[in-house]
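Sequence, please.
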């Protein structure tokens, strides 16, 4: 009799795969953890190496670059430092700012920057078409008034006087005719009152009186014509002519102002207008600064230049007297040092607007302008408007 195998003998074949799964999960987790640790270790090593390299690189001592120019220093044991600006040498003021007295369009610019000019030399021309017409009109009116004045002074005209004399002769003849007619009628009436009517006699008498009056008028007219123009008429015409002549002269003077001219010998520093631009008595509009600028800026002949220094008000008391003052100028960007000659002190402490051009300062810093000068010989790269450092000492 065959025995049937127990069910427990065949059961292990099915649960075998189920028992293998829990053993594979810890292996995979351990592998991933090992890879993560290796990555962290590698990054740590890289960070340590980067830190060492950075520490070495930034720890290298570098030599400082030499200065472009030697810093300014005082040449005196005790000195006052001041900011300064180079200007053209003028008896008063810094530069010659030329503004037009009329408005119009610029037609010609006759000079350029850096050009030396003499007094009276034309610099710039403004359109004067309308003003030229005004001058021509006033000149014609003055000429007409002068012609009428000469006419009055030339009276009496010979032809006019001859006409007046002829009128006198005519009235004399008329008077003679009227008298003869009256005498005849009067004689007839005296002989026979009935020979002529009283009305005819009266008409003849009235005609005689009218002829006598006409003769008197003609003689007076002749005397008036012979006397010439009345002195008051001549005086009135003289004043009218003088008024028109003065108006013409004023218009001519105004016409000359349409051409700007140099008022002194010097050098053109700046020209702020070009042909076609509009200018007025306020100057020319600058599109960059949004302000009005003078048409032409001129400086004096630049054999000598001036330096206007601004000494802080707290240092004014330490300023040496005029007999013992000395100064030296350092030109920025160079090692050039130029001795200065004292000129004068502008005795007016003012806000420090000259250098910053700030109309509204938060701090009211006031300075005293002190003016020096120096010879420009061998200093071709020094120009008006340049800022410099000045040390003021005492002899």
């Amino acid at each position: 009799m065959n025995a049937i195998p127990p069910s427990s003998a065949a059961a292990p074949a099915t649960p075998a795969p189920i028992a293998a799964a829990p053993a594979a999960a810890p292996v995979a987790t351990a592998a991933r953890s090992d890879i993560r640790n290796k990555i962290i270790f590698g990054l740590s090593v890289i960070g340590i190496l980067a830190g060492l390299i950075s520490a070495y690189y930034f720890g290298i001592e570098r030599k400082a670059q030499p200065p472009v120019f030697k810093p300014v220093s005082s040449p005196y044991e005790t000195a006052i430092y001041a900011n300064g600006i180079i200007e053209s040498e003028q008896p008063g003021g810094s530069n010659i700012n030329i503004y037009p007295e009329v408005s119009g369009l610029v037609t010609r610019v006759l000079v350029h920057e850096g050009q030396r000019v003499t007094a009276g030399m034309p610099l710039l021309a403004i359109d004067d078409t309308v003003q030229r017409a005004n001058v021509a009109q006033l000149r014609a009116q003055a000429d007409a008034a002068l012609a009428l004045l000469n006419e009055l002074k030339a009276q009496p005209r010979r032809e006019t006087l001859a006409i007046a004399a002829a009128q006198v002769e005519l009235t004399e003849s008329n008077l003679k005719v009227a008298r003869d007619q009256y005498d005849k009628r009067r004689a007839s009436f005296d002989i026979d009152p009935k020979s002529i009517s009283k009305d005819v006699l009266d008409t003849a008498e009235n005609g005689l009186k009218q002829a006598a009056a006409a003769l008197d008028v003609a003689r007076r007219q002749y005397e008036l014509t012979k006397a010439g123009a009345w002195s008051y008429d001549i005086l009135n015409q003289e004043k009218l002519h003088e008024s028109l002549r003065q108006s013409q002269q004023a218009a001519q003077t105004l016409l000359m102002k349409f051409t700007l001219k140099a008022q002194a010998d010097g050098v053109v520093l700046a020209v702020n207008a070009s042909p076609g631009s509009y200018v007025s008595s306020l100057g020319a509009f600058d599109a960059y600064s949004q302000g009005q600028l003078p048409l032409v800026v001129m400086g004096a002949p630049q054999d000598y230049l001036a330096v206007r220094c601004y000494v802080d008000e707290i240092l004014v008391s330490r300023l040496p007297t005029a007999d013992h003052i000395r100064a030296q100028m350092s030109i920025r960007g160079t090692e050039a040092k130029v001795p200065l000659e004292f000129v004068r002190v502008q005795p007016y402490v003012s806000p420090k607007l000259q250098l910053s051009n700030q109309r509204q300062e938060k701090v009211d810093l006031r300075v005293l302008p002190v003016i020096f000068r120096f010879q420009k010989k061998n200093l071709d790269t020094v120009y008006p408007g340049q800022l410099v450092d000045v040390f003021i000492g005492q002899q």
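The chain has four domains: 30-62, 80-89+301-394, 96-126+258-299, 156-228.
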